[in-house]
Inverse folding.
């Protein structure tokens, strides 16, 4: 079993057992795992460990496979509880960071932007080959002076959801970005997403107590 399914299994198994009982939960987990592996074969892993963003793709496969395993009967509240269960440990670690103390450190934010720019160049070299339809992105294209920002111009999760018929739950997955930001005492300011029909996903992370965060309205 790969890393993603190992991470996902305890929380999902608990949910399936509560719904269906032990035997049926086992059968539905098998369906989930079979679909996950099918999509890995057919749609690819975007380069796997060589691509630092590829884990987002396997998480999408796992969520969509669960959606099928429960006959597409998954409420938003159930999805949110699952995210909290799966991510409890990572959220606790993220809580050690405080974006309110960091987002004004221009040198640090500049280093983060440089890392994203390097990744973007690498993705361009590998797109269409080993990394398939991996993300097209840019570091801070709007020139924010504070905080960390990047923009996605294409997203393989959106491509997969459109191809396979999961555009109804894709926004739920995208909105977990706000929960990740909150764990780091950050605010994600994002007014455009590919999942809702815009031509890009714009990300700008600032401290959650910052003037920028308090002034923000309408983030997706």
């Amino acid at each position: 079993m790969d890393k993603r399914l190992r991470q996902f299994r305890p929380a999902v198994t608990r949910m399936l057992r509560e719904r269906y009982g032990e035997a049926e939960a086992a059968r539905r987990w098998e369906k989930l795992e079979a679909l996950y592996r099918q999509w890995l074969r057919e749609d690819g892993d975007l380069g796997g460990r060589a691509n630092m963003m590829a884990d987002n793709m396997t998480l999408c496969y796992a969520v969509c496979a669960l959606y099928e395993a429960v006959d597409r009967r998954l409420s938003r509240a159930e999805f949110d509880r699952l995210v909290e269960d799966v991510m409890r440990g990572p959220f606790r670690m993220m809580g050690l960071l405080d974006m309110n103390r960091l987002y004004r450190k221009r040198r640090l934010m500049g280093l983060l932007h440089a890392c994203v720019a390097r990744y973007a160049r690498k993705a361009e070299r590998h797109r269409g080959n080993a990394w398939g339809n991996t993300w097209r992105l840019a570091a801070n294209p709007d020139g924010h002076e504070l905080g960390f920002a990047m923009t996605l111009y294409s997203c393989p999760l959106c491509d997969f959801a459109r191809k396979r018929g999961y555009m109804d739950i894709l926004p739920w997955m995208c909105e977990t970005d706000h929960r990740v930001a909150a764990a780091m005492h950050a605010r994600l300011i994002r007014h455009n997403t590919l999942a809702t029909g815009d031509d890009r996903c714009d990300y700008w992370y600032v401290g959650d107590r910052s003037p920028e965060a308090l002034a923000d309205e309408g983030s997706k």
Remarks:
- The mean pLDDT is 96.
- Residues 121 and 137 are 9 Å apart (CA to CA).
- Residues 22-43 form the longest helix (22 residues).
- The beta strands are 136-139, 148-154, 186-189, 201-207.
